[in-house]
Design brief:
9 helices, 36% helix, Rossmann fold, disordered N terminus, alpha/beta
Length: 314
């Protein structure tokens, strides 16, 4: 079976549009195959990397002769729901069979053909920048190879479901386009979010993506009866929540995060660590992390809470 492979090319530049694998069975009608093809230098490797980040099982340079076998694997697999693969001019003469194979394939599996192209000037510039040989060989110039490739790919282009001209696209714009087009609504909730409480006294978390200082809130530490407990204790939590600034902070931060998270997802983030710090990491930060976690979970996100410097229990 073809192995999972990451795309490595970063070539792509504005356009003119003419899961991680898990063990949960995938409903049969949700299986999907995306075939990425098109001109060399138009951004196929970058596109494949984007699909992999979206949770697709990614395969580069699959032999055309194995296409139907691979489609059977995707259709019948309990683990692979969506797959993306690159088929291009590297196949040589066998590429001529692709249009006919696609006709057979589309009757048994949801299949999308994505064709990437760019104008001659852009492709020549990208080859000049990368200094890589064209797949058709070194015996002819890159310009001549591109002309031959475009001619041979025309039958494939004619049957494509989506044709993207990446001439004026950079790699980030191409990623944004593909993410908007192919990201499922279900995946938008699959980012793993960690709400971490900590004490500045012990240092800040090195893996925090976002960090908020909650030392402006009244400190329960100075009330003797609260010192043995943490922000998870009902009385301590009630005391911290009793202040208007606590309620407003929780509401405003939660609203900000609900706004930000979809943007992070579109940028390719699969996990996000949000840290809340107070002096010792025992009272205020614990309560805030717990409250924000509840609100993000209510918004449909997968959230866990970690109390780095707080003792186990209340």
């Amino acid at each position: 079976m073809p192995s999972k492979k990451r795309g490595t090319s970063r070539a792509a530049n504005k356009m003119s549009l003419s899961k991680k694998r898990g063990m949960t069975p995938v409903p049969h009608d949700q299986h999907e195959l995306v075939i990425i093809t098109g001109m060399s230098g138009a951004g196929k490797a970058s596109a494949l990397k984007t699909f992999e980040d979206l949770g697709y099982y990614a395969v580069d340079n699959l032999p055309v002769g194995l296409l139907l076998n691979f489609a059977d694997l995707v259709r019948d697999s309990a683990e692979i729901g969506r797959a993306a693969l690159v088929v291009d001019i590297r196949e040589g003469a066998r590429l001529d069979k692709l249009p006919q194979l696609l006709q057979s394939l589309r009757g048994s599996l949801k299949t999308t053909v994505l064709f990437l192209e760019a104008n001659e000037e852009a492709l020549l510039r990208r080859y000049s920048e990368t200094r890589r040989p064209h797949p058709l060989g070194r015996k002819t110039s890159v310009k001549a190879s591109l002309l031959s490739e475009r001619r041979r790919l025309q039958p494939v282009r004619e049957i494509a479901d989506l044709v993207v001209d990446t001439t004026k696209f950079n790699v980030h714009e191409l990623r944004d386009l593909l993410t908007e087009r192919f990201q499922s609504a279900e995946r938008e909730q699959n980012i793993l979010i960690s709400c971490v409480s900590f004490g500045f006294r012990q240092g800040v978390p090195e893996d925090a993506d976002l960090m908020f200082d909650v030392r402006f809130l009244p400190n329960p530490h100075f009330i003797p009866k609260f010192r043995p407990f943490t922000g998870r204790h009902p009385e301590v939590a009630r005391y911290i929540r009793s202040f208007p600034q606590t309620k407003e902070f929780i509401a405003r931060i939660s609203e900000l995060l609900v706004y930000l998270i979809p943007h992070y997802i579109r940028e390719g983030k699969s996990y996000l660590t949000i840290a809340f710090g107070c002096t010792g990491g025992k009272h205020r930060s614990v309560l805030i992390a717990e409250e924000v976690k509840k609100r993000l979970a209510k918004a449909g996100y997968n959230v866990k809470v970690v109390h780095r410097d707080s003792p186990v229990g209340t």
